[in-house]
Amino acid sequence: MQNKFKHFLNKYLLGTSDLTEKKVVEDFSDNLQKRPLIELKIIQENSKLRSSIYNSIKYKTRERKRRKNYRLLSIGFSLLLVVGLTIYQKNISVNNQELTYSTSNELAKHIILPDGTAVTLSSNSTLIVSNEFNQSNREIKLLGEAYFQVAKDASRPFIISSDNFETQVLGTSFWVKRNIVEVSTGRVKVSNLLDRENYVILTAEQKALLKDHRLYKNTIDVFSCISSTSSYLMMNNITLTQWKQIIEKEFDIQIHFLEDIISTKEFIQADFRNSTLADIVQSVSYMYGFDYKYENKTIIINNTKK
């Protein structure tokens, strides 16, 4: 593991690293800066090493302060590699076969894969990317929930193996949840991992539902769609404008106000994780006293509070 990271670091310093290798190094650096050394699990075993590290860095800085910044970066990374690796592995782990992204209880993570695909990884979820990704294939593994905006590549389908099924696409945007795949745009093939002959082809505004070990295709009722578990849905004293932006992004819809209620001074404080769009809109409409209707992926809101 350490040799693998040193190889990434050398390429990073030489400016020859690819997107994945660059992210590994920069995320490692961010984690070292954000967490104090006292949090290290190996602090007792390495107290002398830690002291030696800082003395060495201090000495090297004093003796070679006129050298280029990348030399200091290299020294710092090399010396902190042994003790810092424990911190780094809490969020991203790397081995010879794969790169793993994980999220905590309340934090979502936004990821750009080497092919340009954008992924929003929900809380308590894991994304596993092979080192062969974007070279010989575009295959990944998902444990949990994520929203994908897949970069188009007709020669190499994008394949996601999740808890219960396999999702294959060429270029589209969609949600993959534990038992549901919801398609916003494009065309998706969803296969049952327990029965490959049981599959469905989805297009925009359609979803696949796994029930009793069988896949079924249905039209998406946007008001029945359930939100993710992303932390930004835990709303703490946000404005109606902020709420509008969050809900539009979460459900891929538009919200239009017929009257000026944006300037209201009331604030929203609620946890809308794992909630239907209908429940979310109804809750806020009760607070603000507005009526609403849904037409062509747009929620039209009319203020009735006088």
- What does the largest sheet look like? 8 strands, mixed
CATH topology of the largest domain: Jelly Rolls
Widest sheet, order of strands: 1-2-5-6-8-9-12-13
CATH structural class of the largest domain: Mainly Beta
Topology order in helix (H) and strand (E) letters: HHHHEEEEEEEEEEEEEEEEHEEHEE
Fold and architecture overview:
This is FecR protein domain-containing protein. Keywords: Membrane, Transmembrane, Transmembrane helix. Pfam families: FecR (PF04773), FecR_C (PF16344). It comes from Myroides odoratimimus. The chain folds into three domains: 90 residues, no CATH class; 123 residues, Jelly Rolls (Sandwich), CATH 2.60.120; 73 residues, Phage tail protein beta-alpha-beta fold (3-Layer(bab) Sandwich), CATH 3.55.50. The protein starts with a helix and ends with a strand. With 306 residues, the chain is α+β, with helices and mostly antiparallel strands. The protein is globular. The strands form four sheets. Strands 1-2-5-6-8-9-12-13 form an eight-stranded mixed beta sheet, with no helix packed on it. It has six helices and 20 strands.
Describe the structure concisely.
The protein has 6 helices and 20 strands. It is an alpha+beta fold and 306 residues long.
Write the layout of secondary structure elements.
Elements: H1 2-14, H2 19-34, H3 47-63, H4 69-88, E1 92-94, E2 98-102, E3 109-112, E4 118-121, E5 126-130, E6 139-143, E7 146-149, E8 158-161, E9 165-169, E10 173-176, E11 180-185, E12 187-192, E13 195-203, E14 206-211, E15 214-219, E16 234-238, H5 240-251, E17 254-257, E18 268-271, H6 277-288, E19 290-295, E20 298-303
Parallel strand pairs: 6-8, 17-20
Antiparallel strand pairs: 1-2, 2-5, 3-4, 4-7, 5-6, 7-10, 8-9, 9-12, 10-11, 11-14, 12-13, 14-15, 16-18, 19-20
